[in-house]
Structure formats: structure tokens, C-alpha cells
Amino acid sequence: MNATMMYGPRDVRFEKRQDPKIAKPTDAIIRMVATCVCGSDLWPYRGISPINGPTPFGHEYCGVVEEVGKEVKNIKPGQFVVGSFATSDNTCPICRDGYQSSCVQREFMSGAQASLLRVPHADGTLVATNDLPPKELIPSLLATSDVLGTGWFAADAANVQPGRTVVVGLLAVLSAKQMGAERIIAMSRNASRQKLAREFGASDIVSERGDEGVARIKQLTKGLGADSVLECVGTQESMMQAVNSARPGGYVSYVGVPHGVELEGEHLFFSHIHLHGGPAPVRRYLPNLIKLVLDGTINPGKVFDLTLPLEQVAEGYRAMDERRAIKTLLLP
Questions:
Q1: Can you tell me the distance from the alpha carbon of 123 to that of 285, in angstroms, rounded to the nearest whole number?
Q2: How many Å apart are CA 115 and CA 16, to the nearest integer?
């Protein structure tokens, strides 16, 4: 098969690799229908997160099952499936409490920017649709596998409720809107992202960052701060802006992979906020998110503003790195 390999900063290649095989009896092999470039893929692409030699990339995926291991009971060849970036058996005590991304058997997925993919713990990781979905729904179904699922967890972890004021990132706008937030303040300096945030339901746009961003949010909330703040980036600046933008008694969720983030104990103590986050347990939400897409209730696929054939994956990375695209959809 052909697959995406990252050799180093800004060195992405699409090259011949061995087809994946069933390695354990709980595995499945799927033929990819769609994949994409994640914002978190840009950390190693930019050289901020190190990689050890050529590394397969991609962790957002949907496709059709080609083969399953002998212990897979629920997932069948021919089914269309969506999976999470973190595998799970969906039976351990952690999974049963809804934190499948910390399953005792968790593996983090990679190698999805390819034509074929091996998925461990297939029964607990994959969610199948009843039928093969129409082509026009594929982008939205792919979005549920990570970017929407992560935004949904961010909204859930920040206790977004009807009537509340919420400060969010892009896909979290859609999630907060579905959860009934009354006022949704989107943080963005990018015109394309601002436009899409409005389409998803944002009532206000704040382009300021750092202390200026906090001051603007306080201004919009009569000096109190927001009820819920969703941190989806993972930098020190974005985390401190989130903490300082929440009202006393408010909720801050953090779902961006942290890079150099440190919280000072006394400041956190006197902020009087609830703090909850981590790798999003997307598997918890997948059945409902897939249903919302199939029902036509939501259209998260709008986040993909660049579609490329998979063999042009390097251009997909470049476009996102240079902010010429919000998110790149890749079609094998």
C-alpha cells in the first residue's frame, strides 16, 4: 500500500509500505474511505515535538472493514466504521466510566494517512453504521473521529449547559451550540475560522490574545468571566487565558495536547475554578455524534476547507502550516 511517513520537520513523504496484517485476534483491517491532517500533527511537522526517524502518521479515520481477527465478534467485513485516535476494549472499569482514551489496553493510533489501517481492539474501538453512508456525509463522519469528538468532550468537561456563556475554539462552537449554550464567544484571529465559527453558532468573536483577550472576555461578561472556557490549543498562553477568562466557580476544560504548560498552584487555588481535561474519550460520544450526522442535525464536515487526493498529503500539511487551510481532507 501507499502511506504517509514523516521523516523530520516539514519532510512528509507518501511512499510504498507493507500492507497491515492481523497481528492480534482482536484486530481489524479497514480500507480507508477518508482521513485528514490533524492540528496536532503540526507539532512534529514544525519540529516542536521530536520524532525518532521515519514515522507513520494519521489518527483520524473512517473506512470499510476488510478483515477481522478471530476474536472480533461485533465488527464485520463490509461494514462502514468510524474509530477513535485512542483504542479501547470498552469493557474495562475505566471504559465503563466513560474514559475510553485511558483504557487499560489503550494504544494511540497512527498510520491512518494511508490506504489501509490496522485497528487494535476493533470491537471496543470502532463504531459501525447500519448501511454504507452517502458520499456527501463522509467528511462529517470523519470529523466525529477526533476533531468533533474532542470538541464535544471539551464542552462536556467544561459543564456547558443551556443558558450559559461559553468561550471556545472552532469545533467546540458546534458542540456548545448543541448543548444549549446561550452565548458562545469564539477565540480566533483567522478570517476563515471566524466565518466558520459564526456558521457553527458563535455569537461573538474575540481576536485578542493573552491579557488583552482576558480583558475583552471580562468586558463581554460584565466583568465576571465566562461560565465555561474550552482550551483546545495546548500552549502556556492559551491555558492561562482560559484559566483567567473563567468566572469564580466556572469550568475550564483542556483538550489540546500540552506543550510547555505549567500551572502555578496559588494562582489556580484563588481562581476558584473547576479544571478537567485530557485526551478526549471520543469513543464515549461516537454513537451519538454519528447519529447526529446521519440525521442531518449537524454538519461538522464544513471544517474541511481543502480536499486533496491522499498522495498529495505533503501539500495538505503545508497548507495547514501556512494557514492557507483550516483542515485538510485526504481521499485515498
A1: 15
A2: 11
Angle between helices 147-157 and 282-294 (to 10 degrees): 110
At 264, list the grid cell.
502555578
CATH second-level architecture of 2-146+280-331? Answer: Alpha-Beta Complex (3.90)
Nearest-angstrom CA–CA distance, 134 and 179: 27
Q: One digit per residue, pLDDT tens: the chain, 332 residues?
A: 999 999 999 999 999 999 999 999 999 999 999 999 999 999 999 999 999 999 999 999 999 999 999 999 999 999 999 999 999 999 999 999 999 999 999 999 999 999 999 999 999 999 999 999 999 999 999 999 999 999 999 999 999 999 999 998 888 999 999 999 999 999 999 999 999 999 999 999 999 999 999 999 999 999 999 999 999 999 999 999 999 999 999 999 999 999 999 999 999 999 999 999 999 999 999 999 999 999 999 999 999 999 999 999 999 999 999 999 999 999 99
Question: Taking the CA of residue 153 as centre, how many other CA atoms within 13 Å lie in the half-sphere pointing to its CB?
Answer: 26
CATH 3.90.180.10 residue window(s) in the chain: 2-146+280-331, 150-277
CATH topology of domain 150-277: Quinone Oxidoreductase; Chain A, domain 1 (3.90.180)
